[in-house]
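Hi team,

As requested, here is the filled-out complex form for the S-adenosyl-L-homocysteine run. I kept the field names the same as last time so the parser does not choke. Let me know if anything looks off before we queue the next batch.

— J.
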Amino acid sequence: MTQSAPEKRLYIKTYGCQMNVYDSERMADVLRPLGYGVTNDPEGADLVVLNTCHIREKATEKVYSELGQIKLMKSRKAEAGGTMNVVVAGCVAQAEGAEIMRRQPAVDLVVGPQAYHQIPELIAKAHRATGERLSADFAPDEKFDALPADRQVTGVTAFLTVQEGCDKFCTFCVVPYTRGGEWSRPADAILAEARVLADKGVREVTLLGQNVNAYDGCEGGLAGLVRKLAKIDGVDRIRYTTSHPRDMDEALIAAHGELPELMPYLHLPVQAGSDKILKAMNRAHTAESYIRLIEKIRAARPDIAISGDLIVGFPGERDGDFEATMNLVREVGYAACFSFKYSRRPGTPASAMPGQVAEELKDERLQRLNALLGEQQQAFNESVVGRVAPVLIEKPGRHAGQIGGRSPWLQPVHIDGPESLIGRIVPVRIDAATRNSLSGSLVPETA
Ligand code: SAH
Ligand code: SF4
Ligand code: F3S
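And here is what came back:
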């Protein structure tokens, strides 16, 4: 009988967007055959991966402070005679790899978002990996081809990357520089991965892309892909994120009205409500065209929950521009919306624009905006109280005898019920709403 080697411990910390969440899972998948098992504690780990985000200054700074802690752990392990390899992956790695190496010598390897499939090879030769810097010229094909067909899944929902990169060059944003140009994954590979997920009990798939609705890897674009996915047995719910208003085509809007598998939730960032600011952002839409688009989508699927992203304090934003954002928000009525203070990113056009807004003014505006968004979220949640909605049961609840799931509109729902329902979509009467979640009770299923 051969004795298997003790499992090596892999710690992965993920920052940023859902695409990074997907990438982190896939990194664990490529490292598993090398004997790495995921741990929740970095202390004493054999391999530490920070999968980083460069979108705002704060996100980037968090990485450097975390690396300070990791460095101490690495020294402690070395004193005990062990080794800890430290890898920085993701968008900070792509954007400022050399800077990371300079600021934190404890880092062994820096690897961009399109090159992480090469980690095993470099780790296997760990002694040679010291100080290596791997970025990529943004050809995600190679990465996806190298990823194992199998995926470890832990729940009944999963992310699935279908598109990467961005050609839009909004003047505030680093993504086109860290993730490269728009690229769509071939439909066959996506369908194969979705089948693996469904076989493992996944009922809901969220398709990911920095500009997911720009997907053009099969006929009919994203709508065509969604229709193919909807046919897979077991894939009962489909979501996608993030979309750009410019790529929201008729076929996709129609799909929202026709496909029961396509969930009534759409994340469609607008960023601002002033046309002057939208132009300076290079968004290629106006406040008016965005609102018309929302009307069209609501005509196809009246109950759709609209979410978005907003930035306050973009250079040149005057009081009147900010009021235009508030007015747009009032007109749209968001179910949920993210809001950010503009963060100056080196190398982006907006960072060099005149009229940078004072931090206190950004704070003030953000507070007012968040108060409005909070009210809207509460109102949206209350609007479903009294309805019976199909809820996908995802996990045990916080208390014994409780289970938790999601409504079609992505709201978390707390229910009294047995854990045996996990993985099932059951009718739930929505009894009450708070700003962040719903509570409901099981409805006996009618045949
Ligand atoms: N591709 C997506 C998401 C990009 S990043 C999209 O276009 O919507 C997610 C959000 O971060 C953006 O929508 C934007 O609102 C915000 N963001 C990007 N760069 C930023 C910056 N420099 N400062 C503040 N917020 C920013
Ligand atoms: Fe960034 Fe704009 Fe591209 Fe979104 S569309 S990733 S905000 S450049
Ligand atoms: Fe951040 Fe990169 Fe995503 S910068 S938001 S992790 S694409």
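Two things worth flagging: The CA atoms of residues 337 and 373 lie 7 Å apart. The radius of gyration is 23 Å.

Thanks,
J.
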